[in-house]
Amino acid sequence: MHLTKEEINRKLLHILSGCGIPAGILYIPLIPGASPQLPKIILGVLLFLSLTLEIIRFKVPAFHKFYFSMAGSMMRKEEDKKLTGATWIFASAFICTLLFPKTPQISCIVINLFILGDAIAAVVGLSMGRIKIGKKSLEGTLACFFLCLALFYLVFPHVPLLLDPWGGKTPLLFVLIVSLSVAVLELFPIRLSKTLTINDNLYVPVVVGAIMQIF
Fold first, then answer.
1. CB atoms within 10 A of CB 173
2. Residue 132 main-chain phi, psi, to 5 deg
3. Bridge partners, residue 133, by sequence
């Protein structure tokens, strides 16, 4: 598989969502008069709408054709009959807000790390990956790992309120474990059976968020 224009567009869309969704989780409750539950409500509505569109797409051929004409250029072949990555991301973000209600910083960080890390892993892996690990590459995994490190040290410290639960500074061991967890979990899919695999858009942020919660 080679890096295509469609895959680049797909990852650019993911990057945009990687900025918008986490920012909303962290900052919407700070709006005067806004409820702390508002991010959960918004994500729940977005997930419901996305699932509804997916079900209609599967059941109504005419709508499927229309849907594909609008978004087909950013869809992978396997998503023709399966849920799209966007729906899984909405589900993951929604679950994170439920699991980490007192620390929205965790949801914000893990969603950013996964979406941006997954994007760079795909771009590097498809464009220059040589050492294959399953369907992915060592080069892509390393790119994901080092991007996570860069975010922790070059970006996150400058984002207001983001590192407050850790006193404004994250320990090296914590950063290494979280970054490595994102890279490794993104690399190896979780298979429940020969035919059933949990989508990485769903489980990576949730599992890494749990690891952060332990710290």
1. 9
2. -80, 140
3. 136
Residue with token string 């005419």: 62
Cα pseudo-dihedral 30, 36, 39, 41, rounded to 10: -150
208 near 116, Cβ under 8 Å? no
Query: What pLDDT does residue 76 have?
Result: 64
- Within 46-201, strands assigned E span 132-133, 136-137, 190-191, 197-198
For the segment 9-49, what is each residue's pLDDT rounded down to a tens digit? 666 666 666 678 999 999 999 999 999 999 999 999 999 99
pTM of this prediction exceeds 0.85: yes
Q: 14: domain range?
A: 5-214
Element (H, E) at 165: none
Burial label for 62, CB within 10 Å (0-12, 13-18, 19+), is exposed
- Report the number of distinct structural domains present in the chain: 1
Q: How many CA atoms lie within 13 A of 175 on its CB side?
A: 17
Give the SS3 label for residue 132.
Answer: strand
Specify the pairing of strand 136-137 against strand 190-191: unpaired
Phi, psi of 190 (to 5 degrees): -95, 115
In degrees to the nearest 10, what's the CA dihedral of 54, 56, 6, 141?
Answer: 20
Enclosing H/E stretch for 46: helix 38-59
pLDDT for 77 = 66
Q: Which residues of the chain have pLDDT under 70?
A: 1-18, 69-80
CA 158 to chain centre: 21
